[in-house]
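Researcher: Quick sanity check before group meeting.
Model: Go ahead. Protein one:
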Amino acid sequence: MTRNSLVKISPMCNFENLEHKLCEVINTSEWNKFIKLFKKAEHIYIVGNGGNWAVATHAAVDLGRLTKKKVFSLDSICYVTSIANDAGYENVFKKWLDLYSDKKVKSLVICFSATGTSKNIVNTLKWSSKQKNFDNFLITANLNKKKSSQNKSNIINFNLKYFHSSELVTFMLFYEIVCQLGYKCPSILDEVARRSKS
C-alpha cells in the first residue's frame, strides 16, 4: 500500500482550534496586563487542581528554567496533605502562600481553574487581594460569571468547552510568555546536536 492510497482520518477529539484561541488571547488587554504583572513580579506562584495542578507544576519548572524568574508551585504531597488536614483543602493554597511567601517581595499568584469557582482557588484570590505585595490573575476555561467574585480585569477566560483544550492552551500560553519576555524555547534538534558533541 502506498502512502497516497492510505485513507486520511481526522482527529476524533475536539481540540477547539487551539492555535486560533491562543491568538485571540494574546491580543487582549487582559493578556497585556498579565504580561506586565509577570514582568514586574520578583516571585511568581502558580496553583491549580487536578490536571491544572500538573500544568502549574510544569509551567513553574519551565518558566523558572527558561526565563530566570523565580517561579514556584506547591509540589510536595506531604505539604498538601498536612495543610489540608489542618486547615481544610479549601485553604491549601492560601495557607501555603501565607506560610511560604516573602512578604517583602513583589509577587504574583496565577490560579488555574476550569470555572473559576473552586473554593481553594477563590480563597487564594481573595487572600492575595488583601496582601500589599501580591497581584493575582485567574486563568480559566469557562468562567462561571454568576459565582465568580474575581476582579474582571484580572481574568483570562478562554471560553472553551473541554478540560483538555483548556489545559493545552494554558501550556501554550506559558511558552508564549517565554518568547514575549525575550527568551527562547528549547529546540529538540539543538539538544540532539548538543548531546552528540559530548
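Researcher: Fine. The other one?
Model: Protein two, sequence then structure:
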Amino acid sequence: MARISLDPPRNPVVRVARWYSRRRYGRTMEPLMAMGHHPRALLTGSLFELGVARWKALDPGLKHLAVMVSAARIGCSWCLDFGHWEARELGLPMEKVRYAPVWREHRDLFSDLEQRVMEYAEAMTETEPAVTDEMASGLVRRLGEKAFVELTMMVAVENLRSRINSAFGLVGQGFSDECEVPPLPSARPPAGPGAQPGPGVTKPLS
C-alpha cells in the first residue's frame, strides 16, 4: 500500500501530469501522483525524464537491461512491472527482459557484453558502489566513452526512480499483465541489512 496519498491537491501541474499519463500510458501513473504533493518537484522530475528519454548514445536493449537489473537490486516492484511493459513497447526480446533480474542463473540467454553491462549496473547499485577499474575500462573499450557515460547515468537515474518509488510504497499498476511473456513471480536479489554481498561484488566476470 502506498505510504502517501495518490490523490494530490489539484493544480495545473498535476492536471497536465494526469492528462499526459493517461494519453501516453492509458492510466494515471502513481509515481506522478505521489510527487504531485510537491508541484515543483513533479515539474522538475518530469522535465528531467523527458530529457533522459532523448539520450540515444547507448543501445536501447543494453540500456533497458541495466535499468531492470538496477530496479531488481533495489527491490522496486513498481519499476519492474512498468519496465516489463516498456520493454514490450520498445520491441525488446521479452525472454531476456524476464530473466534480467536473475541473469546470473541464465547466462546462456545473454551475450558477453550484456552480462558486463548488467554486472556494472549491479555494482553501481550496491551500497557502497562496487564498480572496479576493470569493469569500467572494459565497458569503455566495448561501448565507447559517450555510451559508457549514458550507461552510468541511466543506472543512476534508475536508482533514483527505484528508491523513490520503493520509499513511497508503490508496488505496481498491472502493466506487465498486458505482456505475452509475464515477469518472474519474484526476481529480487538479496538486499538490505544482513544480506550477502551482491553478485557484482562476489563473482566478477573475467
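Researcher: One line on it for the slide.
Model: Residues 187-202 have pLDDT under 50 and may be disordered.
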